[in-house]
């Protein structure tokens, strides 16, 4: 564990708050702290990190965040990632990244779950539209 991460974790343990950090460093620190929080069973810190990461999802970070969510059983974070990928525009952009290819290779179960959710959503929309036309 990096020294900065360890210090931030200790700060949280003793003060119930995280140290101030530069905006651009927050997401990276949240990823490292999530791993540490899971390892040391610091549930509140883990939830704070999940929340921070879910607010910073973008096409460049989502594959890594989804991998973290899967490895560390962060169900809300995983759902936030799936929600981000609901639009075909987001999904297409993410699918073109090397990180997504890595995710396919290392976590095929996550990809299967994602596809299942997307198909279910499409079917639900289809049936809603079809039922509206009948009325």
UniProtKB/TrEMBL annotation:
Cross-referenced InterPro entries, in alphabetical order? Answer: BACK_BPM_SPOP, BPM1-6, BTB/POZ_dom, SKP1/BTB/POZ_sf
Q: In which pathway does it act?
A: Protein modification; protein ubiquitination
Q: Which Pfam families match?
A: BACK_BPM_SPOP, BTB
Q: Where is the BTB domain?
A: 3-56
Q: Which domain of life is it from?
A: Eukaryota
Can you give the residue ranges of the BPM/SPOP BACK domain? 62-115
Any one GO biological process: protein ubiquitination
The record's section on Gene3D superfamilies has:
1.25.40.420, Potassium Channel Kv1.1, Chain A (3.30.710.10)
The UniProt entry's sequence similarity note says:
Belongs to the Tdpoz family.
Which protein is depicted? Answer: Uncharacterized protein
Please give the organism.
Oryza barthii
Q: What is the lineage of its organism?
A: Eukaryota, Viridiplantae, Streptophyta, Embryophyta, Tracheophyta
